[in-house]
Write a structure and sequence with these properties.
Blueprint (H helix, E strand, L loop, with lengths): L8 H13 L4 H8 L3 H12 L9 H58 L1
Helix pairs in contact: 1-3
């Protein structure tokens, strides 16, 4: 295997186009160019995004948009959960304060009755 970063964008584009043409199987391409299959499929994904001087494919553009929206949904779900817990804690503290104030009023009222 070669060291990272030694491949040009043109080389990557040619390798991916060879894969997409169907002339050679992925394993053959990997052996011929001395690259790993994971690298080949990463380049294929990047090719779809238009990273090698080619036009991005519609499917890749839609996939990228889906990934962005999934990240946004995840972020909003975390924020929602955080806010729910914060509200529950605030309500719980308010309820505890009310109950302690009620108990204090009852005990002070009983004390005053006993003094008279």
């Amino acid at each position: 295997m070669r060291k990272q970063g030694t491949f040009t964008a043109e080389f990557k584009r040619r390798v991916v186009e060879e894969l997409l043409s169907g002339v050679s199987r992925p394993a053959q391409i990997c052996r011929r160019h001395n690259i790993s299959s994971s690298l080949l499929y990463r380049w294929k994904k990047q090719y779809g995004w238009g990273r090698f001087g080619n036009e991005p494919t519609e499917v890749a553009a839609m996939q990228e948009r889906i990934e962005q929206l999934e990240r946004l949904v995840g972020k909003l779900a975390l924020e929602n959960e955080f806010l729910k817990r914060a509200l529950q804690n605030a309500i719980g503290k308010a309820d505890r304060r009310e109950s302690s104030l009620s108990a204090t009023k009852l005990s002070s009222g009983a004390f005053e009755e006993g003094v008279n």
